[in-house]
Amino acid sequence: MDVAVVGAGRIGGNVARLLVAAGHRVTVSGRDPERLRRRAEEVGALAATPAVAVGRAEVVVVAVPWDALPDAIAGMGSLDGRIVVDTTNQFGSGPKPAAGETAAAFNAARMPGARYTKCFNTMTSAFQEITAHRDPPVVQWICGDDAGAVEVVAGLVRDAGYAPVVLGGTADCAAMEAPRRDGAVYGEEYRPADAEAVVAAVRAGRPIPATPAYG
Ligand SMILES: NC(=O)c1ccc[n+]([C@@H]2O[C@H](COP(=O)([O-])OP(=O)(O)OC[C@H]3O[C@@H](n4cnc5c(N)ncnc54)[C@H](OP(=O)(O)O)[C@@H]3O)[C@@H](O)[C@H]2O)c1
Predict the structure, then answer these.
(1) Does the beta carbon of 110 sit less than 6 angstroms from any atom of ligand 1?
(2) Which of 196, 202, 197, 79 is nearest to 149 (CA)?
(3) Which of 76, 89, 133, 165 has its CB surrounded by the most CB atoms within 10 Å?
(4) Pocket lining: 88 vs ligand 1, CB cutoff 6 Å
């Protein structure tokens, strides 16, 4: 697929590298042309401005700091019909979700026309880097309201070397959002069997099972 990675730092760089290795055509983008050129070379991707990268992409991975989102969204141009994978967490300054609103729902509303999903946000970049293609696979949680978009992102997650697990829609995904806390999957490692028990609990409105510990 044609994938744009807007913000090819720690998280975006890792996703770009893994998707290039899986045979996707990846274009990385950011603000600093020299840094971008080096990063593109490192991961084997193309480099372009956000507007050009997004213009030719089917899927757009957004991996900028939270406070850069307004600027990055403006720089990407129209997201109409594009599948977006939001990797951001609501740390730092910038507009924030209202009380009780998920960051996913808040960001989806800031990206009109996008087929919004959220993924690759629950584990540190270092952990994601060392656990790609591990056996048994590490779970990458996904949420989104567009079933077709979620399915495509699940395929990319598999290609990147993780196990996709869909937690729910953008309104039901608080458990995969910061901060790390009891009753949430954010910040924790999950394997598929334990993740399914979490999904069942979230769908039933029950507290999720205790965080698994892996040896
Ligand atoms: N690091 C983690 O462990 C981790 C884990 C889970 C989720 N996340 C989330 O993932 C997101 C990215 O984090 P990160 O740690 O990967 O950040 P990072 O290493 O600082 O990379 C951010 C990238 O965004 C680019 N950027 C900044 N402003 C931009 C703009 N306006 N338009 C386009 N590109 C822009 C930067 O490049 P230029 O400066 O050249 O533009 C840089 O390559 C954050 O929202 C974070 O909360 C991070």
Answers:
(1) no
(2) 79
(3) 76
(4) yes
- Which pair of structure tokens corresponds to residue 57? 């992409």
Q: Identify the residue whose C-alpha is closest to ligand 1 atom 43.
A: 9
Q: Which of 6, 10, 34, 35 to mutate to test the pocket of ligand 1 (most atoms within 8 A of CB)?
A: 10
Query: Tell me: the pLDDT tens digits for 95-149?
Result: 999 999 999 999 999 999 999 999 999 999 999 999 999 999 999 999 999 999 9
Which has the closest alpha carbon to 59: 7, 5, 112, 110?
A: 5
What average pLDDT score do residues 140-163 get? Answer: 98
Give the CA-trace dihedral at 153, 158, 162, 163, to 10 degrees: 80
| CA 89 to ligand 1: nearest atom | 47
Q: What is the pLDDT of residue 147?
A: 98
The answer to whether the beta carbons of residues 147 and 156 sit under 8 Å apart is no
Q: Cα(62) to centroid of ligand 1, in Å?
A: 8
Average of per-residue pLDDT across 45-63: 98
What pLDDT was estimated at residue 215? Answer: 81
Q: Say yes or no: CB of residue 9 within 6 Å of ligand 1.
A: yes
> How far are the Cα atoms of 35, 131, 149, 155, 176 from residue 145, in angstroms, in the given order?
34, 28, 8, 16, 15
Q: Which of 152, 132, 73, 141 is nearest to 106 (CA)?
A: 73
